[in-house]
Design brief:
With about 325 residues, this protein is an alpha/beta fold. The chain folds into 2 domains: about 240 residues, TIM Barrel (Alpha-Beta Barrel); about 70 residues. The strands form 2 sheets. An 8-stranded parallel β-barrel has the order 3-4-5-6-7-8-9-10, surrounded by 6 helices. A hairpin with a 2-residue loop joins strand 1 and strand 2. Helix 1 runs antiparallel to helix 11 and helix 11 packs antiparallel against helix 12. The longest helix has 18 residues.
Length: about 325
Amino acid sequence: MKIGNINLGDRPLFLAPMEDVTDTSFRLLCKSFGADFMYTEFVSSDGLIRNGSKSVKKLTLLDEERPIGIQLYGHIVDVMVQAALMAEQSNPDLIDLNFGCPVKKIANRGAGAGMLRNVPLMVEMTSAIVKAVKLPVTAKTRLGWDENNKNIMEVAEKLQDAGISAITIHGRTRSQLYKGEADWTLIGEVKNNPRIKIPVIGNGDINGPLKAKEMFNKYGVDGIMIGRASVGRPWIFREIRHYLNTGELLPEPTVAEKADIALKHFDLSLKYKEGLTAIYEMRRHLSNYFKGIPHFKETRLKLLTSTDADEIKSIILDIKHKWGDFRSNENTSIYQL
């Protein structure tokens, strides 16, 4: 699979852009476990052109993360073009346009998935950005606004005509948010539409190796994007790649292995973010790292409420020493969050 001149090989695995999740520390970790392509957190075009510190900081990329894309969202064409030009200066491998975020405060003002209700504006914006930047431009979207308005086929064709180099489709409508089961049927129909020549990446409910292989085989997508199932479980990329290559399911990491990964993740987070921010944003990962340990409620509470970095590390080390070789043997369905 290729996006522009970026060769990603056969059946690539993408780390989905997730706010307060896909920061530098987590991206580096997922890369070490075999993620083929990653994205930044969502970057607000409004925040970027106003030099908002949070938005500007998200443009910081490391060579070890490549290939990587910067994802932008917004609802004003000129602002998005300006933001794309600014993002291009950080030298990502591509610019991705967020036409899929379902969050109310974003979608209701016409950005993210809100663009699905104004396809002409979406196309105008995409075309303008494609013409403005020298990098490949891709888009991530959903099946449609709601059950009665699944316009993904029209959207995919028009975005391709506007010049995008690949499209990622999440198998839910905006109104579903993250509820229910992702429907890959329309993703497959887009992929098999003779008019569609660009790569199609499927997204939604990929919770492990078996599901990933099924989606590749059943729907013929070029790549698969993994989002919530990777949170506190960065080794999912290694698991999926190994299964795709060998047909063998790797054993779940032991608690000791998970603890070492969690400590590495936490150290990276502290390195790239201020102390309390690093701690708060690690909590959603830490709540998943040690799922399945019995009688763990009290320890989990301490782990997720402490604001002292040394104490958190000490708790993780205690978990490692107490549960070392334990494997939770949880069914992978728990990762259908």
